Amino acid sequence: MKIFVLVKEVPDTYGDRTLDLETGLAARGAGEVVLDEITERALEVALRFADANPGTEVVALSMAPESATASIRRSLAIGAGSAVHVVDEALRGADLGVTAEVLAAAIRRGAPDLVITGNLSTDGSGGVMPAMLAEHLGFAQATALSAVTIGADQVTGTRATDFGAQEVTVPLPAVISITEALPEARFPNFKGIMAAKKKPLEVLSLADLDVDVDPAAAPQTILTAVSEKPPRSAGVKIVDEGDAAARLVDFLVENRLV
């Protein structure tokens, strides 16, 4: 079986994030960048299946700037057998629609049986990429899975809903996304880090994928305004002078909290 896992470099979750007010994009050079934890968990799902099923090919796929090579190499150090890095200056600032089209082209080129992603990235938090990819590829999809069992010709999983756990089954080829309920990724050891330097990392451009996309000339999403998050204001302090309960109720009603 051949499994593609989408991996993504994001600003450090625990660091400060800065917005470029001219472009509306995250200023990725303003702080540390890391491989998104949810994509590491997706990689772990693929690697656990590969451990139990010799001959399984696990490929990490990322669409990212050239500077993201180190993060993609980390996915190789964790255990992916090879990686594909889509990089093209024309993709700077690409929206979800363009990203889905390009990633689908790269996946189609590799012809995997299964695509595994995180349910949403920690930077954009769009949460729609798995479904968009499935639509482009014509694959079955099962999203936001908190448990996954990969079979020879199907994937079975559990999705948490407002009404309890929902069991879903989809035939291969398929796109699935997983939540943080799945185990954390294994930590890359010294042997894995050294091996990653020799593993194949294919770099592809839009021309290689035969995709004619120019987000700067024809964006699919139009940004109308951008601003920094306002500083937090001081809270409301209620001093009990015999009427604290009534004032608290009034506050909750006023702010539509009850």
Q: Secondary structure elements and their pairing?
A:
Layout: E1 2-6, E2 9-11, E3 33-35, H1 37-52, E4 57-63, H2 69-78, E5 82-86, H3 96-110, E6 114-118, H4 129-137, E7 140-150, E8 154-161, E9 164-171, E10 174-178, H5 190-196, E11 201-204, H6 206-209, H7 244-254
Parallel strand pairs: 1-4, 1-6, 4-5, 5-11, 6-10, 7-10
Antiparallel strand pairs: 2-3, 7-8, 8-9
Helix pairs in contact: 2-5, 3-4
In short:
The chain has 258 residues and is of the alpha/beta class.
Notable characteristics:
alpha/beta; Rossmann fold; 9-stranded mixed beta sheet; 7 helices
Q: Supply the CATH superfamily name.
A: HUPs
* Structural class based on helices, strands and sheet pairing: alpha/beta
Mean pLDDT: 87
Q: In angstroms, what is the radius of gyration? A: 22 Å
Q: Could you name the ranges where pLDDT drops below 50 across 5 or more consecutive residues?
A: none
How many structural domains? 1
> What is the molecular shape?
globular
Task: Please estimate the helix content.
Answer: 25-40%
CATH topology: Rossmann fold
N-C termini distance: 52 Å
Biggest sheet record: 9 strands, mixed
**CATH architecture annotation:** 3-Layer(aba) Sandwich
CATH class: Alpha Beta
How would you describe what is shown here?
- The protein is an alpha/beta fold.
- The protein has one domain: 3-Layer(aba) Sandwich (Rossmann fold), CATH 3.40.50.
- Strand 4, helix 2 and strand 5 form a beta-alpha-beta unit.
- Helix 3 packs across helix 4.
- The longest helix has 16 residues.
- It is globular.
